[in-house]
Amino acid sequence: MLLALLLLAPATSSSPSFNRCQPRFEKAAAQLRVADGATKRGDYRAANVALDAGLERLGYDYAPPEVADDTDLHLILAKGQQRNGKLRLAAASKRSILASRLRLCSLPAQRTPRR
Amino acid sequence: MVALMAAQWRASFPHGHQKEQGGTIVADQHGGLSIQNVGGARGFRYNQGHLFLPNLRISDPARFRAVGTFHTHPYDGSGNWATGVSFSGGDMGSLILGPFLLSVVQSGPRMFAYVKTKLTPAYVDKWVLHKDSEEEVWMRMRAGQTFSQGSRIMAAGHALQFGFAYYQGAHGVLTRI
Question: CA B70, CA A62: separation in Å to the nearest integer?
Fold first, then answer.
């Protein structure tokens, strides 16, 4: 009887996944999904708006300090692409950046070397 | 080290697409520098088109200690094959908040180095740093400068702001700015 109850019990994760970006992560990830939907419809203007919102919501505290994070420079280029009317390219660049930053949220810091 | 860095630059465009390369700079007990863990950390999938993750596990830690990182700044056609691109806001934050004294970047033949000094703060607000550096480069591009030029001027200004010793050069010869 006890075994049957255990088998019917809902599955739970054995340990919480590491994510330094909570609670910002979910809202930023939601904007990524909105952008993907807009891209699928061919609405690159809306995709850019959603991606900008996602990047803003996530903020800048998403990576451990040892990461050489050059996404801010690439974001500048994406801004330039957008300003030049290349909305599809800009959206693709920003999507790549937001996805990278979200991914880094789950990267634990490496043990720092002794000084 | 210079030859290795140059080789890492050449390896930054596999199949014509940008991919940041790099390694961990280590010092021996006499202060001699070398690079370990070329290629960075493994076991975590990430987009190396705009990021580099160094591997901080040093071989022979009795002889060597990690003092910095090196990485490349490649830009493929999507970035107009830009070279001479200096430190990003993220690089600065990493140096301020992380355990290292030194950061070296190679972008084309040009090289850049930041060294922490006693004037470098122990903390920086990443939001302010990223926004500030992005806006400055963007502003300079709007004023007619190239992306590369804007990045170099921004990096020089932030070096003053954060007390970094800032070096620029090419082919292994760097001069303090």
Answer: 21
Q: What is the ipTM of this complex?
A: 0.92
- Select the more confidently predicted residue: B108 or B99: B108
Count how many residues are written for chain A. 115
Residue A114: the pLDDT is 53
Tell me, what DSSP letter sits at residue A19? -
Candidates B103, B84, B75, B82; CA nearest to B164 is B103
Q: Which of residues 65-104 of A touch B (CB under 8 A)?
A: 65-77, 79-80, 89, 93, 96-97, 99-100, 103-104
d(CA A42, CA A48): 11
Buried/exposed code over B14-53 (b: 16+ C-beta within 10 A; e: otherwise) = eeeebbbbbbbbbbeeeeeeebbbbebbeeeebbbbbbbb
B65–A97: do the CB atoms touch at under 8 Å?
Answer: no
Average pLDDT over residues A24-28: 95
Residue of chain A with shortest Cα separation from B52: A68
Range 124-163 of B in CB contact (< 8 A) with A: 126-127, 129-130, 133-134, 137-138, 141, 147, 151
Distance between CA atoms of residues B140 and B104, nearest Å: 24
Going from the C-alpha of B119 to that of each of B45, B159, B160, the distances in angstroms are 36, 10, 9
What residue type is assigned to position B177 of the chain?
A: I
Residue A10: CB atoms within 10 A of its CB come to 4
Nearest to B94 by CA among B144, B16, B174, B20: B20
- Nearest residue of chain B to residue A75 (CA atoms): B134
The average pLDDT across B11-36 equals 96
Query: In a 10 Å sphere around its CB, with 0-12 CB exposed, 13-18 middle and 19+ buried, how is residue A18 labelled?
Result: exposed
